[in-house]
Design goal:
alpha/beta; 31% helix; six-stranded mixed beta sheet; disordered N terminus; five-stranded mixed beta sheet; 12 helices
């Protein structure tokens, strides 16, 4: 009897265990079904977010292999681009308006969901490219490569300078700073051309996107030999410019270059108000960013300060940021020349290549050094793709982009690749002295730098007696009218500011005395054209 009872107990135990296993298996199957449903939904969402490639090219990639994007890491620098606005609290729902080929990912972590401990009291204007009232049509599926720009027998050596926000162990990044440096080895001149980061271009092997995403797509899908190769291919396809070499630097590299020079002095013509990280503070804490105004004048900047200056966009535009990037390049070049460090570059080549990723060789550097040593204000020229050469357009996904006007841009590219033409400055060779009667420190140096961009070689003479209105003394007796017109236009002055005072014994052709009414910000803040 006891054996029978024991046998019944064993059978009951086995039955209970089997029932428990069945219940667990059912819960596991239900969970698996839910996961598969979620995965299917994610797949559909990802596929809908990706751009449809052009009919002429069928990428072999699978959309589901797209890795986490760069979005949240873009703001971990001294100049946060999450654009702090006093009217709202930044949160994970504030997604930058990138192209539809980028999907927010799990890398957007709690480091961006903090709440500020204070509410700023100043309202900043968002740095968003304004959309026109008549939104242009989207670009055609494939525009065709722009024909190469041939300029005869000139020996041109073109270098693409790339500023990237790429960080270690982060898959996504952008190349927001793009400057083509064209060295004309025939005449010894150098031209700079900035490409706006939001240009909506055709990327060979991928399709349409902003030009600042070309390198990322090249790295992700091994297009055109990789990221740099894809970016260079996009420049060649859309602008018809051959790129011979490249040099790429990230945020840390840029700061290291400035710091190794002992800092940079730069003439700031237009004041900037933006949020800036307190020195030594944690960049992941929103309260550590304080509203800061950089006034017009001459400022000494270390690496972090310089990076903030070239990246800030609040109250200005990407076009103005392109101009400040070129101003920083000019300031670095001027510092190297004034300190006698240009000649030392060959000896510093190994250290330089530790900071800068480049395919330039030491032989390239040695061949270009004589041109750099003999460069002057007339033979160093700056060019930009301006608002007049693009149309603002909003993609169906809400991304604000710039659609190139190919004919207008080609006309600008021809000017960029052509040596500086003979003009009033080369014919008349004017001399200009600038005195500061404005009551603001170093404004004579700011005005002198502005004239240097136009090819003048002015002298900043320092402080003078304060005056209310700016005066321009013409000592030539009207003999150099072309130079006078260019001077007035560059400084945003009128003929009413001119005082005729012929003097054949004067030290200079023109004497400029800045008054209290002088406005150092002579550039259009939302473009690069003169007033």
């Amino acid at each position: 009897m006891r054996r029978l009872i024991g046998l019944i107990a064993v059978l009951v135990g086995i039955g209970a265990l089997a029932l428990l296993i069945a219940l667990l298996m059912r819960r596991y199957a239900d969970e698996q079904a839910r996961q598969l449903a979620r995965a299917a939904g994610t797949s559909v969402a990802l596929q809908a977010a990706l751009l449809t490639p052009p009919a002429s090219e069928t990428p072999t990639r699978t959309p589901l292999t797209l890795p986490p994007t760069w979005t949240p890491t873009y703001t971990h620098t001294a100049s946060p681009t999450f654009t702090i606005s006093p009217t709202r609290t930044p949160s994970a729902t504030r997604t930058p308006t990138r192209t539809r080929t980028f999907t927010p990912s799990a890398t957007f972590t709690a480091t961006r969901t903090f709440t500020p401990s204070h509410t700023p009291s100043i309202t900043l204007t968002p740095s968003i490219t304004p959309l026109p009232t008549d939104t242009p049509l989207p670009p055609t599926p494939e525009p065709g490569a722009m024909p190469p720009i041939e300029l005869g027998a000139y020996d041109l050596f073109n270098i693409l300078l790339i500023g990237s926000d790429k960080r270690p162990r982060v898959a996504g990044y952008r190349t927001d700073a793009l400057v083509i440096v064209s060295v004309n080895r025939t005449v010894g001149s150098v031209s700079l051309l900035s490409l706006p980061r939001d240009l909506y271009v055709y990327i060979p092997g991928h399709g349409y996107d902003r030009i600042n995403a070309a390198a990322l797509w090249g790295d992700l899908y091994k297009l055109n030999g990789g990221g740099i190769g894809t970016l260079i291919a996009a420049v060649r396809y859309n602008f018809g410019i051959r790129i011979d070499r490249f040099a790429q630097v990230n945020f840390d590299g840029f700061k290291a270059i400035i710091d190794r020079l002992g800092g940079i002095e730069i003439a700031v013509d237009c004041p900037i108000t933006d949020y800036r990280l307190r020195k030594g503070a944690d960049p992941n804490v929103l309260a550590n960013y304080q509203l800061f105004t950089l006034e017009a004048g001459v400022h000494h900047m270390d690496g972090a300060f310089a990076l903030w200056y070239v990246r800030s966009r609040n109250g200005t535009s990407d076009f103005d940021r392109n101009r400040r990037q070129q101003a920083m390049l000019r300031a670095i070049f001027q510092a190297l020349r004034e300190r006698g460090q240009l000649e030392q570059l060959p000896a510093l080549w190994h250290d330089l290549t530790e900071i800068v990723k480049t395919d330039l060789t030491l032989g390239d550097l040695l061949s270009l050094l004589p041109i750099a040593l003999n460069l002057n204000n007339w033979s160093l020229r700056s060019y930009f793709i301006s608002p007049q050469q693009v149309s603002s357009w909003q993609t169906p996904q809400g991304a604000a982009v710039l659609v190139p006007n190919r004919e207008a841009i080609r006309a600008e590219l021809i000017k960029f690749l052509t040596p500086p033409p003979a003009n009033a400055l080369t014919r008349e060779r004017p001399t200009v002295a600038i005195y500061n009667g404005s009551g603001r420190a170093d404004w004579d140096r700011v005005a002198a730098e502005r004239l240097a961009w136009e090819g003048f070689t002015p002298q900043a003479m320092g402080e003078s007696e304060r005056i209310a209105a700016t005066r321009v003394y013409d000592h030539t007796g009207g003999a150099k009218p072309g130079s006078l017109r260019l001077l007035l236009r560059a400084l945003n002055l009128s003929p009413r500011n001119v005082i005729e005072r012929p003097d054949p014994n004067a030290d200079t052709d023109f004497k400029v005395v800045l008054g209290a009414n002088y406005n150092a910000c002579t550039f259009n803040r939302h473009g690069t054209n003169l007033p």
